[in-house]
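Much of our argument rests on the idea that a fold can be written as discrete symbols. This step matters because it turns folding into a mapping between discrete strings. The record that follows shows the chain in one-letter code together with its fold in token form.
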Amino acid sequence: MLISQSIFCQISLSDFKYEPTAAYPYGRPNPEAPEPIKDYKMLIGLSDCKSLTRNNEGEWRKDSVDVIWRFKYIMNGMAVQDESLKADQVHTSSIRQYDNKEGKWYVTFYSSALPSKSITAWEGGMKGEEMILYKEQKAPNGMDGFFKITFYDISEKGFNWKGEWVDKDEKFIYPTWHLFCTKRN
């Protein structure tokens, strides 16, 4: 038996005033969001970046990759999403949510290069003027440690980002990736 039913949605996008709009293309922080939602305020918008990574031999590549990195408020201003569009066609995105109870950011990461089979998160927050996040990761030799990402030199003009493998005590640090970004808007 077939049942026909009309469903009318009782809400519209205009009910969510902190979502991206023509007037606010990157959304706005919701005043009900945890205060650290503002940790990303200087990154919100479009930035033009140069991405520099190591090759298989461990040497820094001579050529950088052009990247457009976009940050915006999502979930009606309760979270932050970033998307990177890269000239090498390996695009990425993260969703950033702050947990008031834990007192830290949780950041999930997605890449067009590999669909995510399971979701893991970086954890961390602001330390002074830097946003620092960690995710447990073994080194190629099996040593326990973390992949550490750091946003630094953050200003209205732009920011820098680095990814590095560190041991548990951060006595051994192996940088693997840098991005140098200039704000477009």
About this structure: The longest strand covers residues 145-155. The mean pLDDT is 92. The chain is about 0% helix and 50% strand. Residues 63 and 175 are 17 Å apart (CA to CA).
